[in-house]
Amino acid sequence: LASLHWKEPIARNECMDIFEHPVPKHTYVLTADVSEGQGLDYSSFSIFDVTEIPYRQVAKYRNNEISPMLLPAVIYSAARQYNEAFVLIEINSIGLQVADILHYELAYENLLKFQIKGKQGMQASGGFAAGKNKLAFGLRITAQSKMIGCANLKTLVENDKLILNDEDTITELFSFSANKKTFMAEEGSNDDLAMTLVHFGWLTAQKLFKETVSNDIRYALQKEISYLQDVDNVPFGFIDNGLDDIVDEKDADGDRWVREREQLYPFDDLNYKWDTRL
Length: 278
Hints:
The protein is α+β, with helices and mostly antiparallel strands and 278 residues long. The chain has one domain (11-230): Nucleotidyltransferase, domain 5 (2-Layer Sandwich), CATH 3.30.420.240. It has helices at residues 71-81, 95-105, 143-158, 167-174, 192-204, 207-213, 217-233, 261-264; strands at residues 11-13, 16-18, 28-33, 43-49, 55-63, 86-89, 113-116, 122-125, 134-136, 162-163, 176-179, 182-185, 249-250, 256-257. Helix 1 packs across helix 2 and helix 3 packs across helix 5. The termini are far apart.
């Protein structure tokens, strides 16, 4: 974390900081963590450019007073601005209401849906649930999904595959630590923006995400590690061929035996003339 550096936003819009304006044909993902809007925890979301690796945080929103009834309109507007970004909402509590408004009232098509598959947990879905699997309009965080998200986030940050630009986000990460079997903000700190990163970390491991954005972070890391191993295995320096210290010897008749090829095989010389009288 000590190597992370934030930068000043290029634009501010109320509670939203913008670090990069949307680029045509780029693919974006918005991950949101919702609070009750009573001046305590923050309703937050981060927007990431996932067109290529490394992924980049291009915008962030943070507001501890906005009502969950009004937040869907803010998410809808920001997501549409960023090329109809894919939207992931955490639905453990009040977030379920936000996701429902986005789906049923605002009819936002790129709201990510998830199948609930029992012991397998939640998996990103194209919008259909097979058999007894239930379909949810957001991500319900469990101990398992949170652990996966935290592990993936750690891998992304440590390997420079996720560029974070926001000061508030990076500050929250410094106080986001292990507590028994989970991760949370230390006492007196917030982790709302940090959780948007955890949600994103979880999403990057999903098959649907890899198919949608046409890049696979695990494959990219494996490829990089393989390259570094190949570089480490390349020999360098001097190689002893066992001949450098051998001195040409003479036989009993005083003839000197040499090991230089041009002397052993004089016919290698194109100008050598054979004695045809033999």
